[in-house]
Amino acid sequence: MTATDQSASASPLAGLGRMIAISSGKGGVGKSTLTANLALALAGQGLRVGVVDADLYGPSIPGMLGIPGDQPPTMAPNNKVIPAQAHGVRVISMAMLSGDDRPAILRGPMVTKYLQMFITQVDWGTLDVLLLDLPPGTGDIQLTLAQAFPLSGAVVVSTPQDVSLKIVRRGLRMLEQVNVPILGVVENMSGFTCPSCGEVTHIFHQGGGQKIADSLNVPFLGSIPLDPAVVDGGDTGRPLILDAPDSPAAQAYHAVAAALSGGAQEGAGLALPFDWQVAEGTGKPAGAAPVAGGDPERPVALDFGAEGLHIQWQDGAGQMIDPRDLRLACQCAACRDEMSGRRLLDPASVPLDIVPTRIWSVGNYAIGVAFSDGHSSGIYTFPALRAMQQVEAEDV
Predict the structure, then answer these.
(1) What secondary structure letter does DSSP report for 83?
(2) Highest mean pLDDT: which of 84-88, 217-221, 257-261?
(3) Cα–Cα distance between 62 and 51 in angstroms, integer?
(4) What separation in angstroms does the CA of 364 have from each of 8, 88, 143?
(5) Who contacts 254 (Cβ-Cβ below 8 Å, separation ≥6)?
(6) Are strands 318-321 and 308-313 parallel, antiparallel or unpaired?
(7) What is the residue-wise DSSP string for 311-379?
(8) How many CA atoms lie within 13 A of 193 on its CB side?
(9) Mean pLDDT of the chain
(10) Which of 74, 182, 245, 269 has a 20 to 30 A CA-CA distance from 251?
(11) Residues with Cβ < 8 Å from 68, sequence gap 6 or more?
């Protein structure tokens, strides 16, 4: 692959800006409503915003933004899908492909295919922010997005109910396991303000979102009050933030958007995504400097030389891994029994002079490595790499 080819292969993601997932542990908490209003709030700041309706089984974003469901998208000259546009926001959704009355009956591989298409095969142009409206839960779609794309972070939506908060905790833990930064928690339906007397009634309790954010040491982005106009706006395709910009709910949406566009920046790390053709010397990821108190399981630089693969970690430690040790540590199904963990790979079959020929990013949590013996299905998580051998501390 030439340098030109490398640049072209990276372009589908290079112009998408910050990819932010809007997530929830359970359904019915107003996640899609938040996504629609948040997209308009960000666009109102002058940002170029796109929305991927990643809830393939229950797409609702087109209806909330007033996009007709009977108009399938067209193709651009570059053979990419042209996204719909509404209120200055670009949108792609399964609802545009299947219509209102046809269910999306998809198995896992097809889910992955559609998600890949929605992100890499859509003519987004240049974006500042791409919001991903996820389905509820911690299933295939969440894992596919976390593993295949370098998400800048996730916003987790909950209601103040205890049952919702318990499920949110599980969702937050899943995101942490795949190294997706938590940009913050939003508490939706936090209270109802009587339009006549102004009294606030906390129908679903109060302050649960703040408490769970504090307990998990993640930012609390704000509370969105109940407002019947939110429902009306979603049904008419005119989100609340357009028709009632001075309402408490609209102001809360603007506050969340301001927090996301102005704060919650990522710490120093490798420039993602990357596809380093080690053998050809192209595509090596740009690095960053270690920081005091940095994450011991986040790499900031990669290099390869005669001694092996060198990893610089964010906490200032350096690590050298022999290529053969890396190959023998592969945990893929061809090298390890998935049930027992027993090694299937015969060490005698691995050449002493084996080297990596290609190293690429896998989401935010791992690297993939192809070797000179032809093996290319190994994925190495950052914690697994850090634990491979003793590392030496360096000055930060």
Answers:
(1) P
(2) 84-88
(3) 10
(4) 21, 30, 12
(5) 41, 44, 241
(6) antiparallel
(7) EEETTS-EEEE-HHHHHHT--STTTB-TTT--B-S-GGGS-TT--EEEEEEETTTEEEEEETTS---EE
(8) 9
(9) 83
(10) 182
(11) 62
**pTM of the full structure:** 0.73
Backbone phi and psi for residue 305, each to the nearest 5 degrees, phi listed first: -145, -160
Average pLDDT over residues 86-102: 81
Per-residue model confidence as pLDDT tens digits over 214-255: 877 888 898 888 887 777 777 788 899 998 888 888 888 999
Find out whether 330 and 238 touch, Cβ atoms under 8 Å.
Answer: no
Where is the binding site, in residues? 25-32
Angle of helix 228-236 versus helix 31-44 axis, rounded to 10: 80
Name the least confident of 93-107, 124-138, 297-311, 373-387.
93-107
Place of tokens 């049952």: 163
How far is it, in rounded angstroms, from Cα 45 to Cα 47?
6
Domains and CATH numbers, the chain: 3-262 (3.40.50.300), 275-386 (3.30.2020.30)
Give the three-class secondary structure for 229. Answer: helix
13's tokens = 């993601």
Annotated binding site for ATP: 25-32
Read off the tokens for 162.
């205890």
Tokens of 234: 């979603």
Give per-residue burial for 44-75: e unless 16+ CB within 10 Å, then b: beebbbbbbbbbbeebbbbbbbbbebeeebee
